Amino acid sequence: MEATTETLGVCEGGVGLEMRRTSPEDKVVALAGNPNVGKSTVFNSLTGMNQHTGNWPGKTVTNAQGVCQSDAHTLILVDIPGTYSLMAHSAEEEVARNFLCFGEPDAVTVVCDATCLERNLNLVLQILEITPKVVVCVNLMDEAKRKQIKIDLAGLSEKLGVPVVGTTARKKRSLSQLTRTMDAVLDSSSSRRPLKVTYPQEIEDAVAIVEPVVREKAGGQIDSRWLSLKLLDQDPSLVVEIRRFLGEDFLEDPRLADALNRAQQELNEQGITADKMKDMVVSSLVLTAEALCKDTVTYKKEVYNNRDRRIDQILTSKWTGYPIMLCLLAVVFWLTITGANYPSQLLSNFLFWVQDQLTRLFQFFGAPDWLHGMLVLGVYRVLAWVVSVMLPPMAIFFPLFTLLEDAGYLPRIAYNLDKPFKRCNACGKQALTMCMGFGCNAAGVIGCRIIDSPRERLLAIITNNFVPCNGRFPTLIAILTMFFIGTMGGVFSSLRCALLLTVVIVLGIGMTFLVTKLLSQTVLKGIPSSYTLELPPYRRPQIGRVIVRSIFDRTLFVLKRAIVVAAPAGLLIWLMANITVGEASILNHCADFLDPFAKLLGLDGVILIAFILGLPANEIVVPIIIMTYMAQGSLLEMESLTAMKQLFVDNGWTWVTAISTMLFSLMHWPCSTTLITIKKETGSFKWAALAFAIPTVSGLAACFLFASAARLFI
Q1: 650 CB-near residues (< 8 Å, 6+ apart)
Q2: DSSP 8-state class, residue 376
Q3: What is the dihedral sign for C-alpha 530, 535, 536, 540?
Q4: Mean pLDDT per segment of 10 residues, for the chain of length 714 residues?
Q5: Residue 16's closest CA among 58, 76, 66, 79?
Q6: Alpha-carbon 467 to chain mean position
């Protein structure tokens, strides 16, 4: 049955989320849970290919919806962002809280990690305060069994007052009991009495003052006890959502205002401030979760996580953590460099074979040369170049990156780099977004959503360009090979290239720290915020799922954006190379005009104009240089690096030119895809302009200083 899109009316008042429904009888089930509990694996296993992604209304946060057919219902599953609590501290946590509180889903399934159930129950207890229609899905039961952790699911269900189901989401057949339980909860007409957390008497007395008025005014639209507690908590963002959901007149009612004043006065008289009340609420949740697990979770080995801790002693040590991190980075680059050569060549041969067929087609129809040049040698050739050079490295790097993420190593990288980023008044999570930038800076910018603080998120977005993406790797690798390694090839040659490339990248990371520090002391002043960085257990990666997810979610997404901007760039490059003024093309005139300034930077006018025209995609910088040196009308590729080096040397290149070009490639403006992404993520041209200006100025300054110093010794 084909899905149609219509707005779920019950959600309009709360979050305005548009649902893809197959019929009005479909049931909406929210999938909630902490980060790293396998929630997305549960979602993917249940929905398969019946998924749809979009953005939450007014947010850049992505929502995922999917259709799952149970025995009794068609379920619309909404995979809400992972959150540790309903006390929102980020955009992701805010939309998760708002959907659970005001989206009125028909049921909520809370996914928990069986290996750290006590911590996950904090969220379960908060959701039980909102709705009784809850299913607790204790996932990763296989991991718990391996670590000899035994969970009394029936006993836990009895204590919580809601169904508890054990699953291993990697094995789809283990989820059948979960869907049957969802059906039972959705069809149940009995009045459930889930466990309610008991807070200190001072808070309970304050809630008792407010709740009668709230119960009368809310009219059963939302749990009155929970709402009373949150009104006393004085969360500004939540107050906005309450006003939107229940109406302006709800909070402006004189009786409610009087009740809140009396309750606040009693709390103040007992020395309970707003911060202290939050601490007391959190403490009650933690103690309740601890009591629940005391009789239902048994550890046969008290040191059940010893293996993980022993590994962490090596991977997160200040003495071994950084060298291992750099070595692993070098290995990833080596695999990307060596692995991308063959598929890149095959893809290039195929795409340029298609170009030959297009040429024959144009000739068959007698199309004029200028039309063939513009569309085939201009637009198509640039697109073919971008795809053949960009796709294979990304298709290798992103799965490798995702495998490290799936195995649990990336949070360790964030832990290792937390202190250096803290010294720069930034957030350790920036390390994760920086790693994503190695695949594509646009993907790294999108990844900055995981950073809670708006100030720290901007720092990460603006400085993400200082780590080179896959688009800049071909330029860096070609120059390193030609001028500093040799062109003989072989395993050791590619290994040396990977090591030197790692040195260049470490320089980029150093610039990230330096610019982050300068920005945090000037434009984006502030102190680093505190956050919880969870170190998930080490797990065996799901290789097949990782490859599919990384290719479709990251590689093709980035490639699509690059193609959109590369097509008009191909047309512009062809026009500049083929329209002549006097005896030279516009491209040569521009290169000659820029040459005096470029010489100050250790470059020449051709190199600088190539970087300017390479704004849409860094992959075409070197082909533009070759085309301009050879005075051709379309992009060219040299038969070998030896021939390319000879061409460059004949046009005045030295080791100074090579290093200056690598420095400028490492530190220059972001590509247009990244700039568009920055504009969308920040909603401001100002921040996109700053993200353009800062690396550009840094690159110009670095090249000028290096070239000036080199001239003293030449």
Answers
A1: none
A2: I
A3: positive
A4: 34 55 83 85 80 56 80 89 77 80 89 89 91 92 85 92 88 84 84 83 91 82 86 79 78 85 90 85 90 86 66 83 82 75 81 89 89 86 77 76 77 79 78 79 81 82 87 83 69 69 86 89 70 66 68 65 74 87 87 94 93 85 86 74 87 92 92 88 89 93 93 80
A5: 58
A6: 16
